[in-house]
Amino acid sequence: MIYFHLFLQFFHIGIFSFGGGYATLPFLYDISEKFGWYTINELNNMLAVASITPGPVGINMATFAGFKTAGILGSFLATFAIILPSVIFVILISKFLNRFCSNIYVKSVISVLKPLGCGLLTAVGVNLFIEEFLSGNFNLFNFIFFIILVLISFFKKFPTVFYLGISAFWGLLLYLI
Amino acid sequence: MSSYYCLFKRFFKTGMLLLGGGYVILPLLKEEIAQKFDGITDDDICEYYSISQCLPGLIAINTAGFVGYKLMGIRGAICAVTGLVMPAFLAIILLAELFLNVADNDVVKSIFAGVGLGVITLVFQAINEVMEKSVTDKFSFIVFLCAFTALIGFKISPVYVVITGLIFGIILGLWRVER
């Protein structure tokens, strides 16, 4: 039964996540809350791991969640489920590729789904912020460090490794002092 | 058979180089695929990439699927996607065991507590980038606000939010055709 649920949930992500990359996040957090296959904390940790391992974050998360819940077979199923919709869509659409993007219905749907995906991602960001700083102990040093990081990220584009590296060092520093 | 294997191998290599999210797929595919295979050009890859953004699912996977299909049909699409995903899959399988074992260690815990801040920063950076591209007028701002409120205020599952958006988009299309 767990296999069936794993497959279904990640198949959902494959169908409904729109915009790639971080667009899978709202779904991944939703799964964490509803099924408890992994904690929000684990998801954050995995996100960091996924950023420094090969492949899209969505695939990495599917593999991890599947592995944690139901071993190798689970990880295979979840990964398969998240890419299956893509393969089906690609094969169906390849026949009439040129007309697809200029179709008025496709255009209308995309004009809705783009800002919608952005709204979902923003909600995830706000939830993460609340989780980190407003529930439990408020750590002023962490807060200042975070604000500085965000400001840097808005003004200058560094590779993801920069943010993860510097914040890993920050975590170690807080542990040592 | 050997040509399928060759395609798989190329995409496997591309998958290994695909670090830090799916966005780097475009230059990688140009380098690893367009230059190595006849029958596909840089322009094709750019086109597939932009079509992939109009499709659900992961952009990197969709793009790989189109390229594989163009080169060798349905089996080609399957080879390309499998090849691209395989390194990501194997890396996590190998790391997951290790990761679950060291997660209780105090030093590792504090490092990841710090990394958590970096992760939230990355999410904020992604929001900032997506916002610039997708929230451009009154209409998109209202859609943005509705989705945001549905998730954060009413805790509605993102699946239902997207389905609602899909239906609304189709109605919008009907209305545009009518006019």
The multimeric state of the shown protein is: heterodimer
The percent range for helix content of chain B is over 70%
Q: Report, as a whole number of angstroms, the end-to-end distance of chain A.
A: 48 Å
Helix vs. strand class of chain B: mainly alpha
Give the helix/strand class of chain A: mainly alpha
Shape of chain A, please?
Answer: globular
What is the tally of beta strands of chain B?
A: 0
Describe this structure in words.
The complex is a heterodimer of chains A (177) and B (179). Chain A is mostly helical. Chain A has a domain at 2-98. Helices cover 81% and strands 0% of the residues of chain A. In chain A, helix 3 crosses helix 4 (57-93). Helix content of chain B is 82%, strand content 0%. The model of chain B has no long low-confidence stretch (mean pLDDT 85). Chain B is flat, with a radius of gyration of 20 Å. Chain B starts with a helix and ends with a helix. The chains are: A mainly alpha (177), B mainly alpha (179).
